[in-house]
Specification:
heterotrimer, A mainly alpha (about 110), B mainly alpha (about 200), C mainly alpha (about 575), A: about 110 residues, mainly alpha, B: about 200 residues, Four Helix Bundle (Hemerythrin (Met), subunit A), 7 helices, about 80% helix, elongated
């Protein structure tokens, strides 16, 4: 951390973030009780989780004010993380595209 | 022999070695848990709609997990407070918050232990279904990370804190780095909780 | 903020005469660790080679008792000295694992990377010396686990180095030990990668800008990123397969799997393809982990011995980075026959064709670097020159495998084995030998013998080709890579089955050709020609340190003022200008 950080101000931010995380946890639990379809529930749940994770990363892990080289490293990781996540998704999409093409081929027009 | 930039920041990057090292380590952790999340998605997509049934059968304890989430978030707060106390030069408060962080980790593990034993009592083992398998794999690996983080923090709060008197800046940096790891473990749990218990 | 106290972080470490254990065994000096890695790597290369030579007996003379060692192998491996197919599988799987993870990676990355990179950067040591030591001992434990698994009651892992599920999930052999060993090896590589990247970012000497880095350092940095980001998915996969074996889970076991006529008693619901995806997500970048440090070594040796700057240094560096990046999105070209659909296979064919471009740029730049040079044909240079065409053959034979139409008939034939070995054996291994001969004076203060070096190189070149070229011919005839008898029971193998004997004899001769190297290696440590700081008249920074270099490396402050390959500069009084030599006034 740079030396001119006002630590008292930061501590206040930490408590605010802590409060937001606690509220976020409650909201997630309550939102799970909602009677919505699975895709909607997944979207809500992952949205809240991502918001909470961003708070932790930005403030507790000081990413909001970090040096360039760390941003570059993380950007690289994000790129490969996406490749990793694409692994199951692309595979199942490819299957579906394949099935779709098959169905179309058999359907008389 | 001295390694340059162990404590002082490199003039170009503005960082010391430890900070870069811990972030690089965390990138590999991102890929480790990323691969497990990818596995999770693939198993769920490939379950032919049986996922909800497997999840219901596993009877995960939502109130306990919610409590655990709160415990872990609180430990993240005490972790940054420990670091902030060192920044202010308060050794006593640093130790208080440091031990609180370790204690929160301990509470988390105890609750996790009760959750696991409740599963085993109902004969819910990793082999029972792919849902339980990935549940035990991911939460188990996460628990190992909690244990690692606790050991790391306990060292700097206990014997490692002697450094306060000889090289305060170095101790502060080290605590910041162990904090980064600890927050990352918290961050992983923030995703694990909804993914397994709620969705 | 409170006033920072700047004390030296390791003030109690210097000026002490260290004990033998601290100095040579649990050392934190990057040079000692580099030597530990190298020796471990060379020993495992030899061991992996021995495994292969035993396999080659059964391929050449199936069903005949193995001479000399056949009776020592035991009744459960080779009754009456005749190799059982299961034992053949063990040898095959362990040959691959040991050569890749315990031979080439420790030597190329752990050995050369550790020893040379900090010296070339002008750094006193690695950024985290203690983590460096731990990463070596993790590797050592992994190696011990792998080696010990041969003595398990059911033998070592025998499911291929790829350990495909579901076979690897249910096999009774030492797959569990393999997984535990792999977890040690992966941990070692991860810690090493963190250390390498931090060192390269933080500990470059003043004036050593990114574009003044020797190409070898660039190769190590890209390699470290590949290890850092590609290995964790395999670690995850390894943990899951371990759970499949130990906790009876079904991550990689589909529903209704039938083994030996009976449905396996597992919950099912897993996916064997998942293992392949996670495995190749690592293992394709791993191929570049094997080849990039080799390219780095060859670039150093060629620039030094052609007495010319590398041609196209910048384009080589950018190609290297692009190569590293692309290597993460080509993995599924190993999986064309899994029925993954034409959309996916089109994507991966395209990326595979694209990734060949930077490799060709680097290889071309190395060839062009030779043009018009005053080439010195010493042993390191011979091996580096041998690398160029051998890697070229390896790369070009890979193109048909990257196109699914051609890959489908060639998949799992000896063609694949031939292709891959051309890249790694006469390719990477030749580069590693070049590195051993080239940096040996820096490690020991003495040069290796030139005559024995040439006696090592020429027979190796001939017999390497004798081993691997016939594999291409067999593969094009459709001979499967998995057969313990070399395919003699199949009609189509008939006309090319005779090549098996040629390959086996070549392999054994190749072993004989390594004897001069072994003699040279041990003899030169004590009796080699004494070398000063800079026996090759090289420009890079490592040659400014004493040979052998002390703990802390340099006895003078290093200030880099120019690029890495200032050879034959017009108007200069000698034909090389070291990177850190002040401009003459």
């Amino acid at each position: 951390m740079s030396e001119h950080v006002d630590i008292d101000k930061q501590v206040r931010v930490y408590f605010l973030v802590f409060g937001a995380l606690m509220v976020g946890t409650l909201v997630t639990v309550l939102a799970a009780e909602l009677d919505v379809s699975v895709p909607v529930a997944l979207t809500i749940g992952l949205f809240i989780a991502t918001a909470k994770a961003s708070l932790v990363a930005c403030f507790f892990m000081h990413l909001i004010d970090e040096k360039k080289i760390i941003y570059w490293t993380l950007a690289l990781t994000v790129a490969f993380f996406i490749a990793l996540m694409a692994l199951p998704l692309l595979t199942s999409v490819a299957d579906q595209v394949g099935e779709f093409a098959e169905v179309e081929a058999h359907e008389p027009h | 022999m001295e390694i340059p930039y162990t404590v002082e920041a490199h003039p170009e990057t503005g960082l010391n070695n430890g900070k870069i090292g811990i972030w690089l380590f965390l990138t590999s952790e991102v890929m480790l848990f990323g691969a497990l999340f990818a596995t999770f998605i693939m198993l769920r997509l490939g379950s032919d709609g049986n996922w909800a049934a497997m999840q219901a059968e596993a009877e995960l304890n939502i109130p306990l997990a919610t409590l655990n989430t709160a415990v872990l978030i609180a430990s993240s707060l005490t972790m940054v407070m420990a670091w902030a106390s060192l920044m202010r030069g308060q050794l006593g408060r640093f130790k208080l918050f440091g031990w609180l962080t370790v204690a929160c980790g301990g509470v988390f593990l105890v609750i996790k232990y009760f959750e696991y034993t409740a599963k085993f009592e109902h004969h819910h083992y990793p082999e029972s279904s792919t849902f339980l398998a990935i549940y035990f794999a991911m939460t188990g690996l996460h628990a190992l990370h909690v244990i690692g983080g606790m050991a790391w923090n306990a060292y700097f709060t206990g014997p490692g804190s002697k450094l306060f008197h000889t090289n305060r800046q170095w101790l502060t940096d080290r605590v910041e780095h162990s904090g980064l790891f600890w927050h990352f473990v918290d961050l992983v749990w923030i995703f694990l909780f909804p993914v397994f218990y709620l969705l | 903020m409170a006033e920072p106290v700047h004390a030296s972080p390791a003030h109690d470490e210097h000026h002490h005469e260290q004990s033998f254990w601290r100095k040579y065994i649990f050392s934190t000096d990057h040079k000692v660790i580099g030597v530990q890695y190298s020796v471990t790597g060379l020993a495992f290369l030899l061991f992996g080679f021995v495994l292969m030579m035993v396999m080659r007996w059964n391929l050449a003379y199936p069903g005949e008792p193995i001479p000399f060692i056949g009776s020592l192998l035991g009744e459960n491996r080779a009754p009456g000295g005749i190799m059982l197919p299961d034992f053949y599988n063990e040898l095959g799987a362990m040959h691959g694992t040991i050569m890749v993870f315990l031979g080439v990676v420790p030597l190329a990355v752990g050995g050369f990377g550790n020893f040379v990179m900090p010296l070339q950067l002008g750094a006193p040591d690695m950024a985290f010396p203690r983590i460096n030591m731990i990463s070596y001992w993790c590797l050592f434990l992994g190696g011990v686990t792998m080696f010990a698994s041969f003595f398990l009651p059911n033998g070592a892992a025998g499911n291929g180095w790829t350990s495909y599920s579901p076979l690897a999930d249910i096999a009774l052999n030492g797959q569990t030990a393999w997984l535990i060993g792999m977890i040690f090896l992966i941990t070692s590589s991860l810690l090493g990668a963190v250390n390498f990247i931090t060192t390269a970012i933080q500990l470059r000497a003043p004036g050593m800008t990114w574009m003044r880095l020797p190409f070898f350092c660039w190769a190590q940095i890209v390699t470290a990123f590949l290890l850092l980001l590609a290995f964790p998915p395999l670690e995850a996969a390894g943990v899951l397969q371990l759970m499949d074996r130990v906790a009876n889970t079904s991550f990689f076991i589909p529903e209704g799997l039938v083994v030996g006529g009976e449905v396996v008693d597992r919950s099912g619901g897993g996916s064997p393809l998942l293992w392949q995806h996670l495995f190749w997500f690592l293992a394709h970048p791993e191929v570049y982990v094997l080849i990039l440090p080799a390219m780095g070594i060859v670039a150093e040796v060629i620039a030094n011995n052609s007495r010319k700057p590398l041609w196209g240094y910048r384009s080589m560096v950018y190609s290297l980075i692009f190569l590293g990046f692309m290597s993460f999105i080509v993995w599924a070209h190993h999986m064309f026959i899994t029925g993954m659909g034409s959309v996916m296979s089109t994507f991966f064919q395209t990326t595979t064709m694209i990734i060949s471009i930077p490799s060709v740029i680097i290889l071309s730049a190395l060839f062009i670097s030779l043009w018009g040079g005053s080439i010195r044909y010493n042993t390191p240079m011979l091996f580096a020159l041998g690398f160029l065409p051998m890697f070229g053959i390896g790369g070009l034979t890979g193109l048909p495998l990257g196109l699914s139409a051609a890959d489908i008939p060639l998949h799992d034939t000896y063609y694949v084995i031939g292709h891959f070995h051309y890249v790694v054996a006469p390719g990477t291994l030749f580069a590693l030998f070049a590195g051993v001969y080239y940096w040996f004076p820096k490690v020991t203060g003495r040069k290796m013998n030139e005559f024995l070096g040439k006696l090592h190189f020429w027979p190796s070149l001939v017999f390497m080709n004798g081993v691997f070229f016939p594999m291409m011919i067999q593969g094009l005839n459709g001979v499967s890579r998995r057969l313990a008898d070399g395919g003699i029971t199949y009609d189509f193998a008939g006309e090319v089955a005779g090549l098996n004997r040629m390959m086996s004899v070549s392999a054994w001769c190749l072993a004989v050709a390594q004897i001069p190297f072994i003699i040279n290696f041990f003899m030169s440590i004590r009796n080699g020609e004494k070398a000063g700081r800079n026996p090759w008249n090289s420009t890079t920074v490592e040659w400014l340190a004493p040979s052998p270099a002390p703990h802390g490396n340099f006895d003078q402050p290093i200030e880099v003022v120019r690029g890495p390959y200032e050879y034959s500069v017009p108007g200069s009084d000698k034909d090389y200008v070291p990177q850190a030599e002040p401009a003459s006034t």
